[in-house]
Amino acid sequence: GQNIDQPTEMTATEGAIVQINCTYQTSGFNGLFWYQQHAGEAPTFLSYNVLDGLEEKGRFSSFLSRSKGYSYLLLKELQMKDSASYLCAVRDRDYKLSFGAGTTVTVRA
Amino acid sequence: NAGVTQTPKFRILKIGQSMTLQCTQDMNHNYMYWYRQDPGMGLKLIYYSVGAGITDKGEVPNGYNVSRSTTEDFPLRLELAAPSQTSVYFCASSLGTEPGEQYFGPGTRLTVT
Asked: Which of A28, A45, B62, B103 has the fewest CB atoms within 10 Å of its CB?
């Protein structure tokens, strides 16, 4: 199984940068995903890491260290529409995902 | 492409009633999943399927059943509904190739009273 930890809440100002950390303990690691979920909506895919290092995708970047069981999602140039819950999920070798409880990010003007 | 569709969007059940949550995807994905999401909690996997005719239990399967007779459809059956099954249910699908991200349906909000 997987144990996945991420902070419950974070608040940041419009235009700023926020880093959401995720630590995990896993059996059979096969990739780490970040999803965004707006209130009352379905999760949508943001990023994927399977090798160590940084993946950049526009304003969003995600980092993975497999030896440390650690990932972070970096959100740059925050916009009001980035207010949402961010879910860290670890995939096992059966292609099943285990999700953290999510980090609610509030962007203030 | 409609993606992943779920019906109904909302439902209220009385304790002991049964119902089926429908899920259909038109992306020809082999893998399909059912999750439940409770307030303040992460998504918990109920059942999943790697292809038509194959299903397997996830983390929280008790009180639920599934079938996968076609690639497109993956219905979730609740028998003898209980208040503990009040939740938001999401269906998802993915390809079995990298990166294999999951695409989620809009969810079904179920209340059991």
From this structure: B62
